[in-house]
Structures are given as C-alpha cells and as structure tokens.
Amino acid sequence: MNFLEKGGVKIKGEVWMKLGHDLKREDILTNYDLHIENLIVDICSELIAEWAYTGIISTVSEHVPGILTLAVGTGGSGWDILNPPAETSDLTELYSELYRKQFSSKQYVDEDGNISATRTNIIEFTTLFDYAEANGPLVEMGLFGGNDSLLPGGGTRVNAKHFAVLNKTVVSQLSILWKLVF
User: Fold this and answer.
1) CB 36 within 8 A of CB 14
2) CA-based Rg of the chain, rounded to a whole angstrom?
3) What secondary structure letter does DSSP report for 150?
4) Of 65, 66, 39, 18, the residue nearest 140 (C-alpha)
5) Cα 141 to chain centroid, rounded
6) Is residue 124 a contact partner of residue 112, using CB atoms and an 8 Å limit?
7) Cβ–Cβ under 8 Å, residues 47 and 40
8) Helices (H) and strands (E) in the chain, counts
9) pLDDT, tens digit (0-9, with 9 covering 90-100), for 20-61
10) For 113-129, b where at least 16 C-beta lie within 10 A, e where not — what string?
C-alpha cells in the first residue's frame, strides 16, 4: 500500500486558463475556460524532502533559483490532442516545448484565496502569453525552476499537466494562473 492509499496528501496544484484580453486575476478565477489539477513530478518532492531533512540541497553549493517559468507545448508525436495521455511523475521536460515565459506575478495567498503579504503554504503563479506568444495547439505545460530555467529545455521541471487542446492564436492573450499548495 502506498502513501496516497493510506490517506496521505502530496503537494497539490491547480491551474486556471482563460483566453481573452487584459484579464485580471478575478476574471481568470471566476470566468475561466479551463480549470484542472496537475501532477507534481518526483524530482520536486525529492528536492523538498532533501531541503526539509538537511536544510540544503546537496547537489549545489550556491543559491538555486526557485520556480521561475511556465512552459507550454504541443505534445508528443502521435498524441490525440483531444485526449492526450495522462502525466507521469517521472517527466523532466515537455515533449514538444513551444514557448517558455517568466511569470507576470507570483504571490502568496491564504486558504480563502486572498492575496497575503506574509508567507503562507499557498503560492499563485500567473503568466500572460501575449498576442504574438505561444500560438499553436497547446496540450501540455509545466513549471520550471533552478539554474537555466529561463532557457528553453532548461531548469528543473516541478509540475506536469496535459490537457485537451487549447488553440492559442494571435487574436487573443492567454492567462494562466497556477496555484501550488505545499
């Protein structure tokens, strides 16, 4: 019997996506096009456990950036874009990365979803892909942190999500709000 079967809870993530123009946080959370849960990949859980145990990440001797970017992609070769395969916890990169971008905002929120000026166990990451960015049939995404996370294909992937195709074109912006609960 594994940890989850015994009633344990792993780190949780949720994503809200909205195509539109000049969207505010409230627009994304209340009038979304897509609301889905995501998978925290193995390496993220292992890094958090190592930090909790030792107070440091043993593989590095210098400061390592936290989660910095959101990458979106068009999925694997042969995928049914209306019904892509489920994520697996061993994923380390996107199958076909299309675009990667730093967050437009990153903030702590309380259990009721209100923005908090002090640290909580909940973080919201918001990314806005503008009209000329990330255009294509999107079916996968992930959060990336660590060294080289600003570079396509770089950094450490901490999250994975596959979803039915969302066609982003030059006539709209795409706002993604990704919430992690630790």
Assistant:
1) yes
2) 16
3) T
4) 39
5) 6
6) no
7) no
8) 2, 11
9) 988 889 889 888 999 998 888 877 777 776 665 665 655 555
10) eeeeeeeeebbbbbbbb
Token duo for residue 42: 């193995």
Tokens coding 10: 């792993």
Q: What is the pLDDT of residues 52-80, one digit of tens each?
A: 566 565 555 556 678 899 999 999 999 99
Provide the whole-model pTM: 0.84
- The residue count of the chain comes to 182
The overall longest dimension of the chain from CA atoms, in Å, is 49
Distance CA(49)–CA(159), nearest Å, equals 16
Residues 166, 177: Cα–Cα separation, whole Å: 15
- Alpha-carbon distance of 154 to 144, in angstroms, equals 8
Closest listed residue to residue 149, CA positions, set 69, 49, 75, 79 = 69
Q: What is the DSSP letter of 27?
A: H
List residues bridging with 58 in a β-sheet. Answer: none
The alpha carbon of 38 is separated from its chain's Cα centroid by a whole number of angstroms, namely 8
Quote the strand ranges of 90-172, DSSP E: 97-102, 105-109, 115-116, 122-129, 136-145, 156-157, 159-168
Residue in 83, 87, 106, 103 with CA at minimum distance from that of residue 95: 87
Phi-psi region of 22 (alpha: psi -120 to 50; beta: other; left: phi over 0): left
